[in-house]
Amino acid sequence: MFYREAGDFKTSYREDSQTFPIKFDRYRYYAVLLVALAVVPFFIDSYWANALLVPFLIYAIAAIGLNILTGYCGQVSLGTGGFMAVGAYACYKLMTAFPDVNILLHIIAAGGITAAVGVLFGLPSLRIKGFYLAVATLAAQFFLIWLFNKVPWFYNYSASGQISAPERTVFGIAVTGPHTEAWAKYLVCLLFVAVLAWVARNLTRGSIGRSWMAIRDMDIAAEIIGVNPLKAKLTAFAVSSFYIGIAGALFFAVYLGAVEVGEAFGIQKSFLILFMIIIGGLGSIFGSFAGAAFLVLLPVLLKNVLVGTLGWPTDLAAHIELMIVGALIIVFLIAEPHGLAQLWRIAKEKLRLWPFPH
Amino acid sequence: MPDQFLFAVEVMINGLMAGVLYALVALGFVLIFKASGIFNYAQGVLALFAALTLVGLQNGQIPFAHLINAAFGTKVHYFGWTMPTFLAIALTIVVMVLLAIAIERFILKHLVNQEPIILFMATIGLAYFLEGLGDVMWGADVKTLDVGLPQGASEWIEDRSAVLGGDGFYGFFIDKLDIVAALVAAVLVISLTLFSQYSKQGRALRAVADDHQAALSVGISLRFIWVLVWSIAGIVALVAGIMWGAKSGVQFSLSLIALKALPVLMLGGFTSIPGAIVGGLIIGVGEKLFEFTIGQMIGGATENWFAYVLALVFLVFRPQGLFGEKIIERV
């Protein structure tokens, strides 16, 4: 009753091929956008922004990026942390080299640079597959982190080896640096998330997304029916790295402000984002959001319950969190391999008939 | 002989010894991959878990002491006894077998016929779980592991080899522990090969590796074989854990050597036990020599990535590894 595909008639091709062809989805999308744009910025304080909303939005971008590569194109990557580092360092170098150019352009350019690096490391995917490729992407992860640690040019020869974002403004409002308001951080991230998610959704349902999915489902068969694997795989790597690079740039410039590369973009980050898309749902844009929200919320929740309420030591809470995350991954893979997104699909099925099931 | 050359030889020998340790971890991977087609990311954490359990049992630590203390406000840490090493090792083996049974019962059974990549991700989840479990059970501090293995430089080799070089050369510096590790690895490989060639269970294991369904149809229990192979992998992990733990202490970084075992496998091929050994040696020697010759010029610490890049370059030319079976794909 509440979720109806039927009775929603389209009279033009334009209407038929819009991003959300079903009314319920469209209104839900508008409602979410409205709340995110017009309500949240007025109530946000720095705890909510720094602990939950900003990391959620940034991880959502990274998760969408990895989902394009792993969920849609079937190429498992463990190099996400390394590519985020490329985005962060590219953004840093651009920010310090061209201080007069708008920061938003820098972030987009950082995504472009990451895309180029991603294509470079994606080249072996034409020869190797499956977990061989997963291990090959580890080469990217470790090599890039080492590179940013060891070559002083990347961190402008600073004594600490860290990079820290100088203050930059958009329309006179600081969006990076120590004086940034919580709502400004939030809005910048929201802007990127909204645009990138919309682009991703349209890419994945268009011809290029279909070629990715054909490669994922069976690459040899796809090649035989005329999908060019070179083009499909490399565009997947490029688009995915573009997203991950933007996430890395935002993570560094807007969210943290200063990063130490091994700590912020280590192998743990690669796994975190991989877990997000497994829990959220492989091959689903909504799933990327759900997974990111879940894994951003879980540690905060556990910390509040275990440390705040029960008064347990923080290190114990961290270890229990590891156990819970690991167990959840296994449970999801066994019980619902398509993740939270599939639960949402099932919920919609139920909503269609509720309250009058057969 | 010129000293520079002798130093290079010393670096190479030490690389060989490090390679043996990589190969020990890689062995566990190969065993599981052959028998069940599962790429077991958790192998390194298994080694960590086994070493933690061994140390905990030896020192008479109370399992979950940290958790119990936090939950009930008590202050318990130790039982107050130390266990003889052999008993502790035997008990750790029992724990690893129980763990293998639990893994089969709670994870693998439910994931039969899933795609390999799903199973791979499940083992990543398992790795996280075990890491957390190990820390909660035995505490996260760095522990020293002492099972009575000889340690320190071998003076005998040092004295004998000192005559090779000039005044600036004091002989090869080789840790006794590394020699023991090499011997243990050799014994392990020989006994595993004998086991899989001549024992009934070993043959069943190879049959499962060849073809799951054919093995099932002649009456081999897949579930038993899986428990068996995970137990063996657990024991191999224990051996690797003892060696690494004695060398550098039992700590979280132990699980990172699992990652190093991955390029080893890619070089050697996922299905070959000799491949794991040869791959380990190549990686060990390669990364030490690279650090020695080129690494110092470009900032050092190249060991972090050399193995992966070597494997990556190698794979582009020979995707199945040195000893792997040729990959044939059908639509």
Automatic annotation (TrEMBL), chain A:
For this record, the Gene Ontology CC terms, alphabetical, are: plasma membrane
Keywords recorded for this protein, A-Z: Cell membrane, Membrane, Transmembrane, Transmembrane helix
The UniProt entry's coiled-coil ranges are none
Provide the protein's localization. Cell membrane
GO MF annotations in UniProt: branched-chain amino acid transmembrane transporter activity
User: Which chain regions cross the lipid bilayer?
Assistant: 27-44, 50-69, 76-95, 101-123, 130-148, 183-200, 236-259, 271-296, 316-335
Major localization class: membrane
Short name of one Pfam family: BPD_transp_2
Annotated membrane topology: Multi-pass membrane protein
Task: Please identify the protein, giving its name as recorded.
Answer: Branched-chain amino acid ABC transporter permease
